[in-house]
Amino acid sequence: MKQHKLIQIFVLSLFVCLSLFLPVEAVRGQTDIPTDDDVNRIAKQLYCPVCENVPLDECTTEACQQWRNLIRQQLSDGWTEDEILAYFVAQFGDKVLGEPPRRGLNWVLYLIPPLVILTGIILLINRLRRPKVDSTNVEESDPYLLQIEQDLNERE
Amino acid sequence: MRKEMPEKTSENPRTKKFWIIVSILSLVILLVVFGLRLFSDGKSMLEMGKAPEDFSLMTFSGERIQMGDLRGKIVLVNFWASWCVTCDEEAVVLEQAWQELQEKAPGETFFLGIAYMDTEPAARSFLEEYSVSYPNGPDLRGEISDLYQVQGVPETFILDQEGILRSIKYGPFLSVEEILSLINPLLTGQGGE
Predict the structure, then answer these.
(1) What are the b/e assignments for B4-19, b being 16+ CB within 10 Å?
(2) CATH of B56-187, one of 3.40.50.720, 1.10.1760.20, 3.40.30.10, 3.30.830.10
(3) Of B58, B65, B80, B157, which has the maximum CB count within 10 A?
């Protein structure tokens, strides 16, 4: 009798547990549908194939709409962000990327700006470290003039 | 008695020389890098009366087409896209011309459609919707459109039996007659310069 009751409790708790999991699964299923934000997160890393300098997430052309639809489809199919970007590069080339890939000669694009800034900083530091020449009192600070003045004084 | 003059330190000529060398070297490196980039493409300019560079295309049906293998045929290369407003009407006209030429001069002409910056599902449904029967394929990485310096779609290039570019049509063909007026002279051997 006691054993029978235990089985009843076990089955009941099993149902309770299952009923707790079911809605969770249903909600999880709903979240698998990619939102506009999910699509745009990837779309903003790509550029419109037909218009100049327009990110895919802002573009209103039919071509861009198709691309966004494809991204949505790929997200629904479980593709990762990297996989989707790689697909677009394979299909349409590097030019669709908002950021040029860090390889080959593209490195020049990434290296030149910091190098220019660094050179500027070095030049600025060099300039600031030089002793300041007071233009109103050149005679006192310029060793040439001081020397000449001293020589002239000695002659007199 | 002559006194030694102190060395002028405000402008160090060695430092100045160093920076001049650095600037010149940077400029040379930049020019070399951009020059390399420019010439590494190795693509020649598209010119009328000259043969464009060879390319191969994997069609949507999985067939590989090598342009070089089409010598001896008049080849029409049409760049299109499913999102292009005027491409749908042109697709109908091109298909009609293709059918007509297949009957009139079988094996003497070849039409090749290239989907420009198009997604595969959209391109496939476009071809199905307009019952396009000549070979079509995607322009992977935009390499073929770069080669043909395509500005927009639709754009069509007609090459003669020697693979020499004979005409370029910017915008859509509006009638079958318009297409045939460019192909017929080549069929009769009158299209050359």
Answers:
(1) eeeeeeeeeeeeeeee
(2) 3.40.30.10
(3) B80
